[in-house]
Amino acid sequence: MLKMLEGASDKVIAIEIIDGYMSEDEKTIEKLFDEKIAAGHKKVNVLIKIDKMQFSHSSWKAMWNDGLYAMKHIKNCGRIAMVGHSKVEEFLIKVDNVFFKKLTSGDSGEKYFDVDNFENAMGWVNE
């Protein structure tokens, strides 16, 4: 289930994933991203809070399709802040960013923030 988060600028999609991530969540994010592009934003920044996400309640197909969508729209991806509470999540974001940075330009990239640093994450994507 998705929850929209307050405090994001016009160029930012800020969401929290609560419980599981399913196909309808994936479609909602795609729609929000497409709307930002249609509004004239060349790069869209994203903040995703995952500290309440349950991977065991999520659809791997939805996550796979989300990744495919991101790859198709990589030129429009700006900063991506992942906010969580796990060293494993932090490590996975660092590994993912190695590949992501090679496909993007400028200050685009992924960055992990601990949930205690949520305000810093929001500030980073709002820059």
Report on the structure:
This protein is α/β, with parallel strands linked by helices and 127 residues long. It has one domain: STAS domain (Transcription Regulator spoIIAA), CATH 3.30.750. Helices cover 43% and strands 23% of the residues. It contains 4 helices and 5 strands, in the order ββαβαβαβα. The chain has helices at 23-38, 60-72, 87-103, 118-126, and strands spanning 2-4, 12-17, 44-49, 77-84, 109-114. The protein has a 5-stranded mixed beta sheet, with helices on both faces. Strand 2, helix 1 (23-38) and strand 3 (44-49) form a beta-alpha-beta unit. The longest helix has 17 residues, at 87-103. The protein is globular and about 35 Å long. The N and C termini lie far apart (27 Å).
What order do the helices and strands come in, and which of them pair?
Layout (H helix, E strand, L loop, with lengths): L1 E3 L7 E6 L5 H16 L5 E6 L10 H13 L4 E8 L2 H17 L5 E6 L3 H9 L1
Parallel strand pairs: 2-3, 3-4, 4-5
Antiparallel strand pairs: 1-2
Helix pairs in contact: 1-2
- Report the sheet-strand fraction: 15-25%
What is the CATH superfamily? STAS domain
Mean pLDDT: 91
Number of helices: 4
CATH topology: Transcription Regulator spoIIAA
Rg result: 13 Å
| Assembly state of the chains shown | single chain
CATH class: Alpha Beta
Question: How much helix is in the residues?
Answer: 40-55%
List keywords for this structure.
alpha/beta, 127 residues, Transcription Regulator spoIIAA, five-stranded mixed β-sheet, 4 helices, globular
